[in-house]
Structures are given as C-alpha cells and as structure tokens.
Automatic annotation (TrEMBL):
<dbReference type="InterPro" id="IPR036188">
    <property type="entry name" value="FAD/NAD-bd_sf"/>
</dbReference>
<dbReference type="InterPro" id="IPR051104">
    <property type="entry name" value="FAD_monoxygenase"/>
</dbReference>
<keyword id="KW-0560">Oxidoreductase</keyword>
<keyword id="KW-0285">Flavoprotein</keyword>
<dbReference type="Pfam" id="PF01494">
    <property type="entry name" value="FAD_binding_3"/>
</dbReference>
<dbReference type="InterPro" id="IPR002938">
    <property type="entry name" value="FAD-bd"/>
</dbReference>
<keyword id="KW-0274">FAD</keyword>
<protein>
    <recommendedName>
        <fullName>FAD-binding domain-containing protein</fullName>
    </recommendedName>
</protein>
<feature type="domain" description="FAD-binding">
    <location>
        <begin position="84"/>
        <end position="317"/>
    </location>
</feature>
Length: 384
C-alpha cells in the first residue's frame, strides 16, 4: 500500500487574504509528468518492425464494408480510409484515437443517424447527430508553464514550488503544481460561464492572450496568486470542449477511444489516463486468443460494455468538480468575497471538500484490473 501523501491543497484565493481549507490526502499523492517526457518514453518503446507511424495523415472519412458482394462476406470486407491529402488505405479494424474533434466519431455517428432515420427512429438519429460536434463547456482555461526559478524570485518559498495547489474562487479557479522534477510550474486558470454550457464557441479554440486579460479576469486575488501571475511570460487561452455522452463507443469493426469517445473537463486531471485505460483494455481483448478477424466486433462490444459506463461516470464527476472548484455547484454557490464572511462559509467549504473527495475517490480506491478481468470473462463467455 502506497504511503499517504498530500495530492492537492485546496485554498480559497479570490480575496485579499486567502485561506487554506483542505488537504486532499491520497495513497501515493499525485505524480506529475510533463506530457512530452511521457510521450518520449512511449515512442522509445514502439517497435520499429511491427509499427508504421505516419504523422502527416489526417483522416477525412471512412467507408465501411464498401463493395460488399454478399451478406455473409461483409464482415470480412475491409474498411476504406480516406485522407485529406487524397490518399486511401484499408484496414480490418479502425480505432479512432483522434481526439475531441474526431473524424472517426463524426463518420460513425452520421452513419448511425442515417441508419436510424431510415428505420424511422428519428430521436435516435437526432441523438447520434448531437454527438458529432464537440460542445463548449462554457469554460476557458489560461495555460502556461514557467520556470520554478522565476517564481522563487517573485516570492521565495512559494508553496507551489513544492505543493500542488488548487485555488478556488467564484467563477474562477487555478491549479498549479511543480513538474519535470521541480524545474517547472504547470499553471492552469479557469474562468467559468456555466450558463453557456453546451453552446457553440465562436472563434479559435486556442489563442495567445496577454497577461492583462488574466489579471482582469482574476481581479483582487490574494498576493501569492498574484506572484504566480507575475511569473508568467507567454499565455494561451483554451475554450474547453467536451463530447456529449455517447450511446456507444463502437459500431461493427470501428471503435472510439480517449477524447474521441469521451472528451471531458480536466478537473480530475484524468482525460489522458482514461484514454490509456481504454487502450489497455481494448488491446487486451484484441490480443486474446478467442479474438479472430471474424469475432472482432464481439471484442469491441465487450470493450464498450465495460469502458463506456466507467469513463462516462468520470466525465460526469470531472464536470461536477469543475462546478465545485468554481463555487458553482447547485445548492453550494458562494456570493462575492465580501458577502462570504458569514459562519456558513466554512461549512460550505467543508461540504465542497467532501463532494470533491467523493467524486475523485475512484482514482485511488479502484484500479483497472477488476474491469479487465471482468472484460476477459465476458469475452471468453461470449456475453456483452
Ligand atoms: C486544458 C486541458 C488540461 C488537461 N489536463 C489533463 C491532465 O492534467 N491529466 C490528464 O490525464 N488529462 C488532461 N487533459 C486531457 C487530455 O489532454 C486528453 O484527455 C488526452 O490528450 C486525450 O488523448 P487522446 O489521445 O484521446 O486525444 P489527443 O491527445 O487529442 O490526440 C489525438 C491525436 O489525433 C490526431 N488527430 C486528430 N484528428 C485527426 C485526423 N482526422 N486524422 C488523423 N489524426 C488526427 C491529433 O493530431 C492528435 O495527435 C487536459 C485537457 C485539457 C484541454
């Protein structure tokens, strides 16, 4: 059993004198990675003989079972891939790991909608079409990484140099923690407009913005947060998009994994982790001796039955954590800092911690192993 460690310290920071109100202690605490470091490790282990990587191809669409001569043959016909550069390729199995704006998801759901419509299931068709495009969550996130040394110069001994921090505020939130063995600080500040959730976002999703925009959005925050702002050089603003919960992640011999299936808000920091769990479980099912070209769709159905409920639960609780961190959870809202001086404030913050912990505890109380075992049994027993 891993030693208990502080994963995050929670602090209310949207007032001149902030205060720490909770330490989220978990087995092992939080382990942070800078994404390129992690990707470099994966790349190092890709087999150069069995894997061919094309980094400049963009899938436009795919056609399933094209050229089908008879019903009995159709399950073995290749899937035709059409790329934006005009080239094509074929495959027996297509796994869409192409992110929140997935071309695989778009094709899969449009095909399902056409089929549902032709069978007179209008509502099902509309539901499928609603999942094609990602939706704006109403949240924008300011992101950057800066050297720890710069923060040390701004405020020597700043707690973010050694402690992962979540600062909460009304319609605003900041996560900051050391990465790359303490040499850098990962900084992410959210501005929320929950009333605009599930709308279309006008303009580019990621934009370079000035520090002044951040300072304006985070007016009157406490000095230690201002020290973080002062350490920032370049800054991006991200419009945070999600995928509406899908009815299925698979269709025949096509599967969606990761953000293409369940792009979620990052308030449990687990979107990439969920993508990796999808991939690991799916790879185990595909590599199992009972899986053959003829039974591929069975393996995909088991993947869907096991991973979809779990990842959609994570998606929902990540959203709830976002509401909690921006002090916007239904029944648990906060007024302006000035209005918040009543005795109920501490109780509310305590309720907030309890909910955050409850939402997040799957992360340290469960592992993928039990689901993996269940999935393999389902595959072996022929059940979904
Ligand atoms: C602001 C923010 C903070 C986050 N913080 C965390 C965190 O702390 N921890 C965490 O675990 N997760 C975090 N996430 C979530 C995480 O980034 C995603 O869940 C993860 O990257 C999903 O991986 P993926 O491989 O499914 O998709 P992606 O990482 O989006 O990769 C998709 C790939 O497909 C390629 N692609 C796209 N379209 C096509 C096409 N048509 N044809 C071919 N290729 C295509 C893209 O170029 C890309 O390489 C955060 C997300 C955001 C937005």
């Amino acid at each position: 059993m891993a030693t208990s460690k502080v994963a995050f310290t929670l602090r209310k920071g949207d007032e001149p004198i902030g205060h720490t109100f909770h330490q989220l202690i978990t087995p092992g605490g939080m382990i942070t990675f800078h994404r390129p470091d992690f990707q470099a490790v994966l790349l190092l282990h890709l087999s150069s003989t069995s894997c061919r990587t094309h980094t400049a191809k963009r899938l436009k669409t795919y056609l399933y079972g094209q050229g089908s001569a008879s019903k009995s043959e159709s399950s073995l016909l290749p899937i035709h891939l059409h790329f934006q550069d005009g080239t094509t390729a074929t495959c027996d199995l297509l796994i869409g790991a192409d992110g929140v704006r997935s071309a695989v998801r778009a094709t899969m759901l449009r095909d399902l909608a056409t089929k549902a419509q032709s069978e007179g299931h209008t509502q099902e068709a509309q539901e499928a079409l609603a999942g094609v495009d990602p939706v704006w969550s109403g949240l924008s996130m300011y992101r950057t990484i800066f050297p720890s040394q710069t923060l040390s110069q701004q405020l020597p001994g700043h707690r973010v140099l050694h402690d992962p921090m979540i600062y909460v505020g009304r319609n605003t939130q900041i996560t900051a923690y050391p990465i790359s063995r303490g040499t850098g600080i990962n900084f992410a500040a959210t501005r929320s407009h929950w009333e605009q959730e599930n709308t279309l976002f006008e303009g580019p999703w990621v934009q370079d913005v000035s520090r002044d925009e951040l300072l304006h959005a985070f007016d009157r925050w406490e000095p230690e947060v201002v020290a973080l702002f002062q350490s920032i050089e370049g800054l991006n603003r991200w419009a945070m998009h999600t995928v509406r919960p899908l009815r299925s992640y698979v269709s025949e011999r096509v599967a969606l994994i990761g953000d293409s299936a369940h792009a979620m808000l990052p308030y449990q920091g687990v979107g990439a982790g969920q993508a990796i769990e999808d991939a690991f479980l799916l790879a185990t099912l595909l590599g199992h001796s009972v899986t053959t070209p003829a039974t591929l769709s069975r393996a995909l159905k088991v993947y869907d039955a096991v991973r979809r409920p779990f990842s959609q639960h994570v998606l929902e609780t990540s959203r709830e954590n976002g509401q909690l961190f921006t002090l916007n959870y239904p029944g648990l809202t906060f007024g302006t800092p000035q209005e918040n001086r009543d005795a109920k404030k501490l109780q509310k913050l305590q309720d907030l911690c309890n909910r955050v912990r409850k939402n997040w505890e799957w992360c340290w109380l469960t592992t993928l192993d039990a689901d993996l075992e269940r999935a393999v049994k389902m595959l072996e027993n022929g059940s979904q």
